[in-house]
């Protein structure tokens, strides 16, 4: 049975807190600092877009939020648990229980059906009725007629909806999406974006959306802009003010 990380939270506890985060990596030319003293807080249910030019540190920021990389400096707390203090094994358990990740590339297992792809993380987490939960989530994505299709038989939009279902099926409290519509045409991207926002609302999940799309970002509650590894602005959107 998979160990459970007990929540140390109340509904008033922010879903994500980053304090003075720095990230430096080693290159052939020497140390390269990608993020500088990043501090931010994201509340439960909040939808936050992160914008910035290529190389500004957006994707690195997301990998740190997910615990896929460890910061060189600072502290990251997700759902009341400090990621810095967790071992790699405990981080893996934590991600399965609390964090959903959606990438621009769909990262589906090509030999598994949509249902099986969605059920995999549930099975790894030792959840009962993994296939039933996967089916319910795929149905929410409008894919009840595609349950038994492998990825090569799905359109790009359908594959991204499977990836979204996989990220949310375990009841993730924080969804991290890195350019989720980047590989899709405009109309399909809009459909996937609408499903993304609706699913986060239905699941009570907070969303961090990495994007270059200003229109997509405007649908969030806040827009954070990065440049050269630093936050240069953090503003609420017209949607929030309204």
Which regions have little confidence, pLDDT < 50, spanning 5+ residues? none
Share of residues in helices: 25-40%
Briefly note the structural class of the backbone. alpha/beta
Number of strands: 10
Compressed to H and E, one letter per element, the order equals EEEHEEHEHHHEHEHEEH
Separation, N- and C-terminal Cα atoms: 46 Å
Query: What fraction strand?
Result: 25-35%
- What does the largest sheet look like? 6 strands, mixed
Rg: 18 Å
Strand order within the widest beta sheet: 6-7-8-3-9-10
Helical stretch count?
A: 8
| Molecular shape | globular
Mean pLDDT: 90
Task: Describe this structure as you would to a colleague.
The structure is a single chain. By secondary structure, the chain is of the alpha/beta class. The chain has eight helices and ten strands. The protein has helices at residues 58-65, 88-98, 114-124, 130-140, 156-168, 186-203, 214-217, 238-241, and strands at 16-27, 30-42, 47-51, 73-78, 81-82, 99-102, 174-178, 206-210, 222-227, 230-236. The strands form two sheets. Strands 6-7-8-3-9-10 form a six-stranded mixed beta sheet, sandwiched between helices. A four-stranded antiparallel beta sheet has the order 2-1-4-5, covered by helices on one side. Strand 4 (73-78) and strand 5 form a beta hairpin. Helix 3 (114-124) packs parallel to helix 5 (156-168), helix 4 packs across helix 5 and helix 5 (156-168) runs parallel beside helix 6 (186-203). The longest helix is centred in the last third of the chain and has 18 residues, at 186-203. The chain is globular and about 50 Å long. The mean pLDDT is 90.
